[in-house]
Amino acid sequence: MTLTEKILARHSGRASVQPGDNIWVDVDVLMTHDVCGPGTIGVFHQNFGRQAKVWDRDKVVIIPDHYIFTADAMANRNVDVLRAFVAEQNLPHFYDVGTERYKGVCHIALPEEGHTRPGEILLGTDSHTCTAGAFGEFATGIGNTDAGFVMGTGKTWLKVPPTLRFVFHGELPPYLMAKDLILAVIGDIGCDGATYMAMEFDGDGVYCLNIEERMTLCNMAIEAGGKNGIIRADQKTVDFVKSRDKSAKPFVVEQSDSDAPFAREWVYDVTKLRPVVAKPHSPDNRAYVDEIQGTPIDRAYIGSCTGGKMTDFRAAARILNGHSVKIDTFVVPATTEIARLLKTERIDGGQTLEEIFLNAGAKIGEASCAACLGGPSDTFGRLNSAIKCISTTNRNFPGRMGHKQAEVFLASPLTVAASALRGSITDPREYLS
Ligand code: SF4
Fold it and tell me: To test ligand 1's pocket by mutation, which of 373, 394, 396, 401 has the most ligand atoms within 8 angstroms of CB?
């Protein structure tokens, strides 16, 4: 069996499963946020009753993160619905806005707070829940109806997906990041190339990546239609998980059998890749940066669950250090922990990352999804007019970051930072000695 099949088999009480099997599985963690939480709670109440209790209060995690710093009354009401439900159910894992516990983007908050463990099943009411596959677990997004059912029963029904294997060899050159790898993959297979399939990332090129870069790979599996992205846990994963999981729950590290039946395999030599962008209006509209170098842009955005982690900001700071941006540049840490680190971590003992960004002329927002999903018109960094933006986020469909006529180019933090300095799409190799 593949890694995904092994996890699903164990959670369904079977010795083995194969692609196409329909199975009931026990869920380890259910996450919801301010956009889908109210709908999920409504489904739960409607089907299990007003007095019903969630199946396991320790396994439900509620993370407001999307439309947070806004005056929009409906957005604020959504967070109030979460608060009322958490109080009603006495849920321990709630990261409320305006409190010390507030975290920011759910997919980064989950591992930071110890909710991701190898071998588990993590479901969330958000398509990028697949990010947690970086920890060797089965993680996928589900709709409010399924999530309401999981809340009441701890179970869900799944069809076992076939697995595609993507093998990366070699060590990433300093001008490339995991974002370039996943954009290259999506460019090769298309937005529907992995529809309802597991995308397993493997090879020495993956295991040299740090945990955050592995999260970037799995995060965008959904942009190829993948059911889940997944990477076998290694020592780096185990060390990270143990350092974060206060519950010290035991977990099982699985791996694909050497003769596992992969539906198809792609092999990449990462040393031969070049910086990649996805042009408007689709993540599979691939171009190499050197092919569209010089394309004028109006805005740069560095943030989100894809490109708002410490590794992303370190990379951007390497480029921006000592320079000034030519266009509006927005920096949004994914979580409050990352926001704090921006204030303390220094490059080569000099300025902090925050000082580098501010001195370069960038604006720094509060930890949240901010403009990644557009949001209300007062959202930090939102594209409120038909401008061109280069962004470290994961989706560039029309209207995704706000205005329907805005154009979004997806790229790595290195490419976004280099482009911010020129005001046009720029190859990061021009700023890296
Ligand atoms: S940062 Fe963007 S992609 Fe990630 S959870 Fe928020 S809105 Fe979704």
Answer: 373
276 bridge partner residues? 288
Q: Are residues 220 and 340 in the same domain?
A: no
Query: Which of 69, 103, 305 maximizes ligand 1 atoms within 8 Å of its Cβ, making it the mutation to test the pocket?
Result: 305
Q: Is 366 exposed, middle or buried (0-12, 13-18, 19+ CB in 10 A)?
A: middle
CA distance 51 to 430: 62
Which amino acid does the sequence have at 136? G
Nearest CA to 164 out of 4, 31, 345, 307 is that of: 4
Q: Is 113 part of any domain? A: yes
Helix %, strand %, coil % for the chain, to 5? 40, 20, 45
Determine if residue 190 is left, alpha or beta; phi over 0 gives left, psi from -120 to 50 gives alpha, anything else beta: left
Q: What whole-number percentage of the chain has pLDDT above 70?
A: 100
Confirm if 23 and 166 have CB atoms less than 8 A apart: no
Please state the domain count of the chain.
Answer: 2
Residue 212 Cβ contacting ligand 1 at under 6 Å: no
Q: Do 336 and 291 share a structural domain?
A: yes
Q: Is 42 found in the same domain as 152? A: yes
The response to whether residue 177 sits with its C-beta less than 6 Å from ligand 1 reads no
Q: Is residue 282 part of a domain?
A: yes
Residue 433 has pLDDT above 80, yes or no: no
The CA-atom distances, in angstroms, between 413 and each of 128, 349, 379, 392, 410 are 19, 22, 21, 6, 10
What is the domain extent for residue 358?
276-430
Which pLDDT tens digit goes with each residue over 115-146? 999 999 999 999 999 999 999 999 999 999 99
Return the CATH number at 49. Answer: 3.30.499.10
Last residue of a domain, one of 247, 267, 294: 247
Length of the chain measured in residues? 433
Instruction: Give this prediction's pTM.
Output: 0.98
406 lines ligand 1 (CB under 6 A): no
As a whole number, mean pLDDT of residues 283-299 equals 98
Q: Are 284 and 242 part of one and the same domain?
A: no
pLDDT band at residue 310 using 50, 70 and 90 as cut-offs: very high
Are the CB atoms for 337 and 106 separated by under 8 Å?
A: no
